[in-house]
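ok, trying the design again with the full structure, not the truncated one.
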């Protein structure tokens, strides 16, 4: 696997598809900055919890999809010693063993 890409490469690719040069922030964020925000802060009667009441439902813990270990770690499939591993099933594997 090659080096990580810079986010700028993705932004430039989107700008090219949209026919813009990417230098004008109004293209990226919309507007020219002269509009004023019509929204005002205030209490509109909502409670602010958006229906989240902290119920008794069990929440599954999050799992990593990628791991970088500078001291190197072992691929769970082939045993290679590597810095970068991706989750594949229940284990962490090298890019060659990962089913993309």
């Amino acid at each position: 696997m090659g080096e990580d890409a810079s986010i700028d490469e993705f932004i430039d690719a989107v700008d090219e598809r949209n026919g813009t040069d990417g230098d004008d922030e109004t293209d990226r964020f919309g507007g020219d900055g002269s509009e004023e925000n019509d929204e005002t802060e205030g209490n509109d009667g909502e409670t602010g919890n958006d229906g989240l009441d902290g119920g008794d439902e069990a929440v599954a813990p999050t799992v990593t999809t990628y791991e970088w270990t500078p001291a190197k770690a072992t691929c769970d499939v082939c045993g290679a010693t590597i810095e970068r591993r991706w989750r594949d099933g229940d284990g962490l594997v090298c890019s060659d063993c990962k089913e993309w």
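Keeping the full-length input from now on. The beta strands are 66-74, 81-88, 91-93.
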